[in-house]
Design brief:
The protein has 428 residues and is mostly helical. It is built from 19 helices and no strands. The longest helix has 32 residues.
Length: 428
């Protein structure tokens, strides 16, 4: 049986390829969520150009980990939690799901808080009202509007992140120093620098993206089969072309995410850090990085970027939590299903948003919370990467599509790096 897969990702070459990209680009856009913006801004302001070398290091590692998640979903037709449930002891399943759920709800709370704080720069509305509006709006959109439809609209808001690239051409940047810092890595800042590294890699190689990527590959397959009028029986074999398209999709998404990461870090270093603002406490302080090109409307531009990426990322955070719980407990799942068909799935999503929302009332500084969320992701990632590495090498599960040497080297490097960083921090 020939497999129909990803109607918009149906060929490798030809005009308009970008319009045919699939879950990988959405994942990449969600990777530059408010937590990412806050973390990269803080690291650039605090350490200048000292950590710009993390961008070229993070790209192959993040792409390899996301490709592994995508391949698991594409080949098996199952989400990550479902695969863990099948092939590991219960304690591994529950531990993995607990890690991602805890990291996700804190990330949701941090993102919602930052979105509200950013919008208040241009709209004088109480913080609490904005928190409820964003949480309720996100849930309503996920329940009643297919995510793939409204994400296309929201991606236009994320184009405001390109302003960080524009800043690089509006201010003086010593590109010789930048190049030296990229190719000659350093570790400035001692213990606080190690915490910054955990945050940078934690927000770039984020656990929620693993679960989301695998599940969205499955979701896209189901959508394509519905579109083709086929039954829901087991799909046919994956072709080499399918995997090549998936890999290009994933690499394109992660490359765009890391490019934005690099631009934010350099922009913050040459604006905020160079003018003595090394600790970002408020949204207004973070927005100052955009003033060289935006002037008095820097707050508006910053708010558009944070709200746009937040409205993309918060559904991914809540959705990955719901996928993980639904697959763990055998509930019907999927954004393509209605509320009546998958009430447990949507209930888990609502619960994740509700718990994240409560973090907005505990008095945590919204901008600092973004940094802490990135660190938490960095601590949660290593055991989940290990589980994925083991799954990807299972011939029984993936057959000819089990991991090759390059995938094993890159994913293994990500595992080692993200394991050693917390240990170095604790021992320093």
């Amino acid at each position: 049986m020939t497999r129909a897969h990803h109607h918009h990702r149906n060929r490798l070459r030809g005009f308009g390829y970008l319009s045919r990209l699939g879950p990988g680009v959405v994942t990449g856009a969600a990777d530059d969520d408010p937590s990412g913006i806050g973390t990269y801004s803080q690291v650039g302001a605090s350490f200048g150009l000292g950590y710009v070398w993390t961008a070229p290091v993070a790209l192959p590692l993040a792409a390899a980990v996301q490709e592994t998640a995508a391949r698991l979903g594409l080949v098996t037709g199952k989400g990550l939690a479902a695969l863990i449930r099948e092939r590991f002891p219960r304690w591994v399943l529950y531990g993995s799901v607990l890690l991602v759920c805890v990291a996700n709800v804190f990330n949701i709370g941090a993102d919602l808080g930052a979105m509200a704080a950013s919008l208040r720069l241009v709209v004088p509305v109480p913080q609490i009202a904005l928190l409820f509006a964003f949480a309720a709006g996100t849930l309503a959109l996920e329940v009643f509007v297919p995510y793939h439809q409204y994400s296309r609209v929201l991606r236009w808001l994320t184009l405001s992140l390109g302003a960080y690239v524009a800043v690089l051409f509006a201010v003086h940047v010593d590109w010789g120093t930048v190049a030296r810092m990229v190719f000659v890595p350093g570790l400035p800042g001692g213990r606080s620098g190690l915490a910054a590294l955990i945050a940078v890699f934690g927000t770039t190689v984020s656990p929620y993206l693993f679960f989301w990527q695998a599940s969205e590959e499955v979701e896209e397959e189901l959508e394509e089969r519905k579109r083709a009028g086929r039954s829901a029986r087991a799909p046919g074999p994956v072709k080499a072309e399918h995997c090549r398209l998936m890999r290009l999709d994933v690499v394109a998404g992660m490359a765009s995410a890391v490019a934005v990461m690099f631009a934010i870090m350099v922009s913050s270093a040459v604006t905020l850090g160079a003018h003595g603002l090394t600790t970002i406490q408020t949204a207004d302080q973070a927005a100052r990085a955009l003033r060289p090109i935006a002037g008095p409307v820097a707050g508006l531009l910053f708010a558009l970027g944070v709200v746009g990426t937040g409205m993309l990322a918060v559904p991914v955070l809540a959705g990955s939590t719901a996928y993980a719980l639904a697959e763990t407990f055998g509930w019907r799942e999927g954004l393509s299903r209605t509320l009546r068909e998958a009430h447990g799935f949507y209930g888990a999503m609502a619960a994740a948003l509700a718990v994240g929302l409560t973090l907005g009332f505990v008095g945590v500084n919204p901008i600092r919370a973004l940094y802490f969320a990135a660190i938490l992701n960095g601590l949660a990632a290593p055991p989940l990467i290990l589980v994925m590495l083991l799954l990807s090498n299972s011939k029984d599960a993936l057959g000819r599509w089990s991991a090759g040497w390059l995938s094993n080297v890159l994913v293994g490097a990500a595992l080692i790096l993200m394991t050693l960083l917390p240990l170095a921090y604790l021992l320093s």
